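Two proteins, back to back. First:
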Amino acid sequence: MTTENISIEICEISTLSVETSDFGFTRYLYIIDDVKSSLVIAILDRKLDEALFWAYELYFSGFKEDVFCILEQMLDMMYISLNPTLGPFLAKKKQEWDDTGAYCIVGTFIYNMVYRSYDVSRFVKKYCKDQDLIAYIDAQTITKPASGSRLKRNLHITVQPKDVVKYITINHIKPHELLRQTIKYQVIKNTLAIFDHEHGIYTYEQIQSLYWYHWLYYVNKSPIWAERINTYGGKLNHESHSIDFDTVDLEEAFYEKYGLEPDEQPKQLQEMNIGTGLEEQMSWTEFYEKYAYE
């Protein structure tokens, strides 16, 4: 990794898009929305490797623009006011990604955000409907130091490919063993009220059924899987929520290469993908109290 300090203008991003209108799974069978909110929380919790894991789970599932949208909007709503030089630096890096598509630039964003001071009050005031909490925030004078920060405010980090190569999609493991080798973190499931995910209305049993028996239909929401399915001639069957293949041979070839068998995985691994259904949900007040002060 190298360091540099630069300054250019950054455009304003007005909303934090961590929800999607369609339920679906990522490359390693996490719920797409859950990965987005897990990324936000991991950054706020200053968990570097976990934040990188969630960011690249989205990125290599094919949601490249979504990753940058989330990071840029977090930057705008939570970081810029306390880190005025960080925006220009990361804006230049985003332009570099636009020009080159270098996946390590996602890591550059994460490394430079995860230990910085932040202020969630603007985010809470924009999305929370609790007027008492908003009034309380308005009455506060918030100065949020970066507890245990390892970065000086004028020091910026540039990540190299070797620093994040371990997050690239793995294809050389037998498919029924793949999740056991790649699932590293349990998805964060206690913020459904904060991020208002569409699947928050589903019961755990419903999500479990989709994960067990209809995963291939819903994983098609991820571009990496849509390409794989298309390569083997698979077509969406909206009536049965399944994938139909042109021939039995193509279907068998597909499953031989990509059959993840989520219903056959250990219970602990399944819960890392979709949670337990027993998570106690965080309120807006709890969210603000946890992340406004340290």
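And the second protein:
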Amino acid sequence: MQSLPNRGVPISQREASGERSSTPDWENIHTFLEVVRRGSFRSASDHLGLSINVLRRRISDLEHQLGVTLLTRHVDGVRTTAEGAEILTAAQKMELASFGLIRARDRSNPALDGEVKLAVTEGLGTFWLAPRLIEFQRAIRGFSST
């Protein structure tokens, strides 16, 4: 994220100030991935729930951080430049690595274990909960009812 004094300052003037981050922001990279996947800022905006201006600013910030133009804007959407295609490949690998990190975290957490007590009315317990408990027991390995 750029500091407040640089907000709205043209890229050429920002570069002159010497403020250049060596590590791109993951949010900007994720935004770049979504804009490319969706093919347009509007579609990515709808998917991410952010305004088009926020997405454009993030892409601009990323381009500034990397020092290259990533996307060209066209009437029918966006296209990656040659540099953008290379960075897209690296960003996709980065995204896969982040998913791997999350999976590793989930595997390292101990499984939940313990007793579960439920209190429900007779009708709800008989007609809705009881049939689902059988499915639950089958889905949970090592589940034992006492």
